[in-house]
Design a protein that fits this description.
By secondary structure, the chain is an alpha+beta fold. 44% of the residues lie in helices and 12% in strands. It holds the Pfam family Pkinase.
Length: 421
């Protein structure tokens, strides 16, 4: 009996001891877990604080840079609006006119009843470079064929630009000859006047400003049309300012839109980047206007073959054939059409020095068709950029066929002569 009671007491004490050990282990584990969680939270908070500090430091530096830039213009700078003003002007961003990679454009109304277009830069670069480019470029301009900047908003990442409103929107919706867009087709005379207006605007940017402005993104989407179809060059987000005496400009990376980018912009083997790069984009765009083809896609020449549209046009001009375009051209419009095509073919020459300046483009457009020489045949067989992996090989082959002496002296201006000597 006594041994049994002794075992009972001992086993009872062991059970209590085990329970105490388990309890202590749980408490210690809980304390360790709490300490770990506290340390983790503090570490995360410190990390977030560092990131916030870095963000505000970078934002502050960018703000200072933009503010200094705006201050530099003083009274010449456009009117500055707050973001709350932008919300009022656009009725809380209610009427969207369009959308792009930069953000969205909304219709708005100023306090004086002036109808405007407000471009809200939702995806503006963190350093504000695209914003600076746009304000810097347009603030220096005053021309009937350049869109007018009426004001801007800059509040950290909230950025907007206020432009005069263009009732007819952008040129691109009047180009394509397919489907319902065929009803928007403009007369050749109107297209010719638009081509002239854009050329005058570009000539002003290249020669008329105290500082030369290279646009680098001339395309139908960036040409706005007022109520009378007067063209206005817009969207200076990729523009570059340079001294008028600078023939060649330095650039890191390509700028522009596929189908309109000059060869030298994406491959320096073709030559230096200059205002002639805008001339190339202009030529590609005018060919689109005449042919009604987005980015000059291939034209079907038979049931089994296609040809690059500029090359196809060149062949027709070379044979003096009647232009067989996807539009009805009256006899009196034939000369204007041919003139635009010949000038455009000069503009899209592969080597920059073989392209005319915008002053010469205007001279040719306003002159007689008989006075125009047919340029060399376009050598790039596709509107798409050449693969950079094969660009050196491809460009060297093309340049072998291009480095010939053409009768182009009449197309050269002072900048061309100075760059070639």
């Amino acid at each position: 009996m006594i041994p049994f009671l002794f075992l009972f007491v001992v086993s009872g004490k062991s059970k209590i001891k085990v329970q105490l050990i388990i309890g202590l282990a749980v408490v210690v584990a809980a304390i360790i877990a709490i300490i770990f969680i506290v340390l983790l939270v503090r570490l995360k908070a410190k990390s977030l604080s560092s990131l916030k500090s870095l963000y505000f430091h970078l934002t502050s530096k960018n703000d200072e840079r933009v503010e200094a830039f705006i201050l530099q213009y003083g009274s010449l700078a456009p009117k500055r609006f707050s973001y709350s003003d932008i919300k009022k002007i656009t009725n809380s961003l209610k009427d969207k006119l369009g959308q792009g990679g930069y953000g969205s454009v909304y219709k708005g109304e100023l306090a004086d009843g002036h109808i405007v277009a407000v471009k809200v830069l939702r995806k503006s670069k963190g350093d504000g470079q695209d914003f600076i480019n746009e304000v810097a470029s347009i603030s220096r301009t005053s021309h009937v064929n350049i869109v007018t900047l009426l004001g801007f908003c800059y509040e950290r990442l909230k950025r907007a630009l206020i432009y005069e409103f263009m009732p007819n929107g952008s040129l691109d919706k009047f180009i394509c000859n397919q489907g319902s867009l065929k009803n928007h087709q403009l007369a050749i005379k109107t297209l010719y006047e638009i081509a002239l207006g854009i050329a005058q605007g570009l000539e002003y940017l290249h020669r008329g400003c105290a500082t030369r402005i290279l646009h680098f993104d001339i395309k139908p989407q960036n040409i706005l049309l007022d109520a009378n179809f007067c063209p206005k060059i817009s969207d200076f987000g990729q523009a570059k300012l340079c001294e008028t005496r600078d023939t060649i400009v330095s650039m890191t990376g390509a700028r522009g839109t596929c189908g309109y980018i000059a060869p030298e912009v994406f491959c320096r083997s073709f030559g230096g980047v200059s205002y002639k790069s805008d001339v190339y984009s202009y030529g590609m765009m005018i060919l689109e206007m005449v042919g009604g083809r987005r980015k000059n896609v291939n034209v079907e020449v038979s049931h089994s073959s296609e040809m690059y549209f500029p090359t196809w046009l060149y062949k027709q001009l070379e044979k003096s054939e009647k232009l067989n375009l996807d539009r009805i051209i009256a006899d009196e419009e034939e000369e204007m059409t041919r003139k635009m095509i010949v000038v455009s073919l000069w503009c899209i020459q592969t080597i920059p020095s073989n392209r005319p300046s915008m002053s010469k483009v205007l001279e040719m457009l306003q002159g007689s068709l008989e006075a125009l020489l047919l340029p060399p045949e376009p050598l790039l067989s596709s509107p798409a950029p050449i693969s950079l992996q094969n660009s050196n090989t491809t460009s060297s082959v093309i340049m072998q066929g291009v480095r010939r002496t053409f009768a182009t002296n009449s197309l050269l201006d002072d900048d061309d002569v100075s760059s070639n000597t």
